[in-house]
Amino acid sequence: MEIKPIKNTFCKYLKAKSPYGTTEGGENPWFLLDEANTICWCIKSAGGAGPDDGLVAPRECLAGRSCFVAPEN
Amino acid sequence: MEKRKEIFPFGIPGHNLSEIEREIPNDEPPAWPVNDQLKEVGKRVNRIDARAKVTGEAKYTSDMKLSGMLYAKFLRSNIPHGSITSIDTSEAEKVPGVHGIHIITKNKEDGMVGNEYPEIKYVGQPIAGVAAESLSIAKDAVAMIKIEYDPKSFVIDLEEAMLPDAPLVFKEPIQRQEDGGDVGVVHDGSKGQGNLRGPTTSSFYGGPRGDLEKGFAEADVMVENTYRTQVHTHMPLETHGVVIDWKPEEMLVYASTQNTAGVRNELANYFELPKSQVRVICDFMGGGFGAKHSAGSFGPMAAILSKKTKRPVWLMIDRKEEHLAEGNRPSSIQTLKIGAKRDGTLTAIQQKSHGTAGVALGAGVGRIAQILYDCPNFKTEQYDVLTHAGPGAAWRAPGNVQGAFGVEQAIDELAEKLKMDPLALRDKIDKSEVRKVERSRGAELFGWSNRKPAGSASGIIKKGMGVAQSCWPRFVTLNSSIEVRILNDGSVEVRGSVQDIGTGTKTILAQVVAEELGLKTTDITVRIGDTLFPDGPGSGGSVVTQSITPPARNAAYEAKMKLFNQIATKWETEASKLEAVDGFIIHKDDRSKKIPFKEALRGMRTSQISVTASRSNDYGGFQQPWGLAYGDLGSVQFAEVSVNTNTGFVKVDRVVAAHSCGRPLNMSQLESQVNGGVIQGISYALYENRVMDKGTGHFMNANVDQYKVPYSMEIPEIEVIIVEEYGALSSTDAYGIGEPANIATAVAIANAVYNAIGVRIYEIPITPASILKALNKIYE
User: Fold this and answer.
1) In chain A, positions 2-61, which contact chain B (CB-CB < 8 Å)?
2) Residue B641 is assigned to a structural domain of this protein
3) For position A23, what pLDDT does the model report?
C-alpha cells in the first residue's frame, strides 16, 4: 500500500524532524508519514510552542490559528 | 530517459550470492563487482581527515574566532510553568563589555496570545540573550537581568500528567476554524485531550492488520508484560551552537549541525531572507545523534545579536543547557501482548505505549513491533503525554530503541515458554535472510552454544548471555546532490553541502570517487559541509551513505566520460574503449596505449570538468515513492554480562554485533560506528537517566557527573561482523549503519541479565538497586 504525503496546507513556520528527514515549513505536500516519532517545532518562536503559546503539531498548525502564516507557494 | 540492462551481484557472499539483471539509466555507470574485486571501496582506508583531527588542526564551530567576535549567553527560566510579568535589563546593560541584549518576545503580527513574553513551560526555556566581549562578561550580565514570574502549577511525571486534574502543558482548545483541516485517518497522533495526545496507530508501513481477537484465540502461548524506558538526553562532545556573522550581503553561519541545508533554510525562513543570502558551514562536527537538525533557539538569537551589534557572535550552549533544552530520547511505558502457536508461529501482537517528549510530541516506540517479525494480526496504540520538561528530539533510531527493549524481551520470554532457544525461535519467525546470516555468524563467534539455562549460574558473580535484534528502514533522501570537479592541475574535488558528523562521510565520498576514476582515496579532495555547494541530505535516519554516494559515483563517472571523449578524439578511438585504472587511462584493446590520469587532465580543453549529479530512483524502484527503499538495515547483537548479586553491579563483558548495510564501503569506519552505537546502548541500558525533581520541576543531574555515562573501564570487548549484502539498487548499493548500531544493545543486555540471575528486569536503566530489588535483597 502506498502511503501518500499529506496534502494539507500547514503553517509556513511549522518544521518537523522525522526518522527519515526534516520537513520544511511551507512545503506542500508535507512528508509527515510517521507521526509517532516526529518532533515538531515552530521556526518563528524557535521552540515547541507557537507564538500563541499553543502546541506545535500538524493537526494544530493550520489556517485559522491566530499565528498561522500561509506558505507563499 | 534511455535505459540499458546491467548484470549486478545480488545476495550475500558465502551464503546465496547470485546475479540479477536491472534496467538502469544510460548515463549511470556500469555495475561494480563485489568488494573483493574493488581497490578502494570496501577497504580499511584511513580517514582522510584523521591527521587534522588528531593534531588539533581541525576547527570545530566552538573553535571559531572571528575578528571582533562577541560571546553570547542565554538567560533561561528557572521555573517549570508560569508567566513572565516583567523583565528588567537595566543593570545588565551597564556591565562594561556588554554590547547587546535581546529579549524573546511575541508580537501581535505573529499572532501572540497573552502578554508579550512567551509562557514558560519548562525549566531551561530560553528567555533572553546577552552578547559581550567575553563569555564571563556575558554570564555576569545574564545574572543581573531581573525577571518577575507568575508561577503556575506544573507536572513533570508522565503518569501524573495523564490524570484528569493534572496541570495542562498546553491550554485547550487552540483557537482555529472548525474546518481547520484533517491530517488524515492514519496520521492522528496529535489529537487528544488534557496532556494526552494520540493514539498513533500506523506508520509508513501501514496501519493495523488482521484480527487481534482471532489471533489471540488461536495462540497456544501468550506473553504479556509492561516495559519501561527512561528519558535519555543528548551528550555529544560538542554542544549545540553557532557562530554567526550577519553582514549586509550575507549571513555567514558556522554551525555544529547535522543538516547545513536545513539550518540555512530555517534561518532564511525566520528572517525572510533568500536562501542565497544565508551560508552555513560545518567543516568538522563534534558529534550529533539526531538533535542537531535545527537552527534551534540559539541560531535566531545569535543572528539577532549579530545584527544588533554588527559583529560576529559566538553562541555555544553549555553542558547543562544541552541537558535541559536541546533534546532527549522520550521515555516509554509499553504494554506488549504476544500470542504464538506451539511451534513458535506468531498469531497476534498488541502494543500500547505512553511516552513523554516533554513539551513536544513524538514519543512513539517505533516500528519494531509492526515489522520485525512475521505476524498476521497486529495493532499498536502509541500515546504522547505532555509534561513540563524540555522537548524531545530525534535520538539515534527514534522509537526503535525503546520499542526493541519491549519486543525483544517479549520474544525472549516467549522462547522460554515454548522451551525453544531464542535464536531458533527467531529463525522461525524472522523472514529476513540477512539477519539469518547475522544470527548464524554471530552465534558462532560469540559462542552462543555455551549459554546456560537462566539463573543456573553459581557463585556471587553470575554470568549470563543474551541476544536481541533490530531493523531500521532504508531511507533515501532524493533531494541529494553533489558536484565532482576534475581540474587541469591534476586534482579532483568533491563538493556538497552534506556534512560529515564524524562518521567518515568525507572518506567514503573520496573512496567512491577514487574507485570510479582509478585513483587512490588520498588523491581526492573533499569539501563538504558548506551550503555554497549543492544541497545534500541531513545526517539523520542513517540516510547519508545511500543518498549521496550514488550521485557522487555518477558524477565522477560522467566527468570521467567527458574526459574520455576528449582523449578518445586524440587517440582516434571511442570513449567506451577507455578505462581508468591504477592512476592511468588505458586503451582496453591495446593496453600499451596509456596515459597517467593526471597528465591527461593537463591536456583538457578547459581548465575543469564539473558535473553535479542528483540521487536517482533505486533501480528496482522503492517500497514507497518518497524514498523508502527495499530491504532493511538489520542487526543481531549478543551480550555477555557479569552480575554481582551482592552489590547489584552489572558489568558487560563482551558484545558481538553482527550488522549489514548493503555494500560496505569502509570496514574500519563501519566498525567504528557500531562500536559507538554499542557503547551508547550500554550507557542507555545501565547508566543514563534524567532525574527530575517533582517538587521544583528541575532536572537534578544536568551535568556530566551525576548523569552517568560509561567510562573506559565499563566498555567491553566489542567484536563487529559486517555481512556484505548486495541488492543491486543503486550505483554504489551502499547504506548507512548509524541507527542500527544502537537499537539492539540495551535489550540484549537485559536478556543477558535475565539469563544470569533468572529474574527479568522490565525497566532501564538496570541499576545496582534494581538488581538487588529483583533479587529481594532490598525493598522499596
Assistant:
1) 2-3, 5-6, 8-9, 12-13, 15, 17-22, 24-26, 31-41, 43-60
2) yes
3) 83
The strand pairing partners of B632, in sequence order, are B473
Q: Is residue B141 part of a domain?
A: yes
In chain B, whose CA is at the least distance from the CA of A51?
B112
CA distances from B198 to A25, B191, B379, B752, B773 (A): 23, 5, 14, 34, 34
In the numeric block, the cell 541529494 is attached to B480
Domain membership of residue B699 as a residue range: 432-474+628-774
Nearest CA in chain A to B329: A37
Whether B175 sits inside 8 A of A31 (CB atoms) is: no
Contact B477 A20 (CB under 8 A): yes
Same domain, B226 and B247: no
Q: What is the CATH number of the domain that holds B737?
A: 3.30.365.10
CB within 8 Å of B591: residues ≥ 6 apart: none
Closest-CA residue of A relative to B295 is A46
What mean pLDDT comes out for the span B273-285? 97
d(CA B156, CA B81): 10
Total residues belonging to chain A: 73
- Encode pLDDT of B467-479 as tens digits: 999 999 999 999 9
**Which chain A residues contact residue B327 at CB under 8 A?**
39
Edge-first strand listing for the sheet containing B650-660: B461-470, B635-644, B650-660, B717-723
A73 at B interface, C-beta within 8 A = no
The predicted complex's ipTM stands at 0.94
**What sign has the CA pseudo-torsion B374, B424, B686, B256?**
negative
For B182-194, what is each residue's pLDDT tens digit? 333 334 455 677 8
Residues of A in contact with B399 (CB under 8 A): 19, 36-37
With a cut of 60, say whether residue B379 has pLDDT above it.
yes
Please tell me which residue of chain B has the smallest CA distance to A55. Answer: B170
pLDDT tens, per residue, chain A with 73 residues = 666 666 667 899 999 998 888 888 767 666 666 778 999 999 999 898 999 999 998 878 888 888 999 887 5
CB B678 within 8 A of CB B671: no
